[in-house]
Amino acid sequence: MAAATGTSPLLGFDAVPTSTADSFVVPPGYQAERLISWGDPLFSNVAEFINGGGNSAADQLGQFGDNNDGMSFFKVDDSTAILAINNEYCNYELMFAHQGKQMTAEDVKKAQAAQGVSVLTLNKSADGWRFAKDGKYNRRIHANTPMMISGPARGHALLQTSADPKGKQALGTFNNCANGMTPWGTYLTCEENVNGYFGSTGQVEITPAQARYGIGLEDAGWQWHAFDKRFDLAKHPNECNRFGWVVEIDPKDPSSTPIKRTALGRFKHENAELVIDKDGHVVVYLGDDERGEHLYRFVSEGKYNPNDMAANRDLLDQGTLYVARFDAADGELKGKGEWLELTFGKNGLTPENGFNSQAEVLIHARLAATQVGATTMDRPEWVAAHPTEPVVFCTLTNNKNRGVKDNQPVGGPNPRAENHYGQILRWQPANGRHTAAAFDWDLFLLAGNPTVHRNNLYAGSANINKDNMFNSPDGIGFDQAGRLWIQTDGKYSNEGDFAGMGNNQMLCADPATGEVRRFLTGPIACEITGLAFSPDQKTLFVGVQHPGEDLAGSHFPLGGDSTPRSSVMMITREDGGIIGA
Ligand code: FEO
Ligand code: CA
Ligand code: CA
Ligand code: CA
């Protein structure tokens, strides 16, 4: 691991100190503006946001969704662009005057309307990029938007419901965490903690597969199943199998039907990092964010055609899904690894072991991963591939179960018991080929607290010091120059193991030298998540998610006594230069 030098030629900004303030702080010479916040109307015939939970479900259907997360920027022309943004979940304590304590059918409809994806038209003027209300691409996709199911699991019995006996058309997407984009101009939105929206009004038997996906008689408190029978396992046992997928959306066609791509497997998807291998195959790296779950890779059967965008549209329907196994000598923080194929009939994925088709392998990808011997990880969040070098990074955000649960031994890329700081894994595919079976891995950094812990791994790796420390890396992404941007979803108590870390933040790293420098800090009780650059690299869009969650006292972004609102921020340099340089 490289030591911090403070001399990286890639990092041209002054470090921002930690903060516990209710503000969004960027480096000297930078400026940040609010692009849009939860509840802002996308259309002029829609109500404005009302503080304290006054908006209706109908209002929310035409407003920017809640808890913005991953996002992608699509250039249309020099003065027009589209920003597609995930809306992950809701904070009932902020969304409803009753704080979620007296839910009604209308309230559930509002929560369903607040999740999914917001597609925004942006126009560029002398003042920079601005959201265009009534812009032609503006669209809300939510938990009741009709979707197509495609790929090998389309039509399988486990996807059939009374409303959709053919198992080919689902209703909606929700808990949309992070994202991806394709070179053929589509947006990938990833369904993550979908289990928490299902519950049962009666006694039903929970199958081992449902249990592995966290689906049980009790929901996570969202109460959808009490008011919308689609989410009631007692009435519709297969509805839950229609979520936990990657969904492909054409942002340039507001009338298009989103498509659930089952070839990419069903789990708690974090993001979908897509690269085109040298030989033209489409490779998508996929994390499953749960303690002790796995890291996946999809390789398309067909090849990308740069001269015919329409020919690429269904490349994500046919291919091979793999899951990673990491090998290391005892105590080594580097080693080798292998991608294990998840194909029906291979590697024990047979009827004797409970797999009767490729559809079942994909619907129960977690069970298949266990069958083939995948490594249990410390919560794989985002994956980011370097723009020019064959090297890939993945955040392993934290894992309190490491070394505690039998299936999660300490070692390899998960080297700390009760890991509450997280680490960033890096691997280099064999021969520089993203389609290769093998790779070499190491840890780019171990987050930690060198002011609390000394001479052990909890102090963090050599590139972590008292001036750049943080916990729980989550969102990551590269800019065109190869800077690695790191966002945190960590503990913001600023006490104990987290003393001196302050609010959640965004940092920037030089992958060559290992240097890490803090770039911004967020308001009270927020997560920083979601990033997208304009093609000229002069505007950076960053998400502030759930400021003031759990009534923590934020009034971001508008101050006063306003309701705190998740927001997309827009960062530029005062001199108009490239962000980070
Ligand atoms: Fe939605 Fe794993 O973060
Ligand atoms: Ca995340
Ligand atoms: Ca997280
Ligand atoms: Ca979050």
Automatic annotation (TrEMBL):
<dbReference type="Pfam" id="PF05787">
    <property type="entry name" value="PhoX"/>
</dbReference>
<dbReference type="InterPro" id="IPR011042">
    <property type="entry name" value="6-blade_b-propeller_TolB-like"/>
</dbReference>
<dbReference type="InterPro" id="IPR006311">
    <property type="entry name" value="TAT_signal"/>
</dbReference>
<dbReference type="InterPro" id="IPR008557">
    <property type="entry name" value="PhoX"/>
</dbReference>
<protein>
    <submittedName>
        <fullName>PhoX family phosphatase</fullName>
    </submittedName>
</protein>
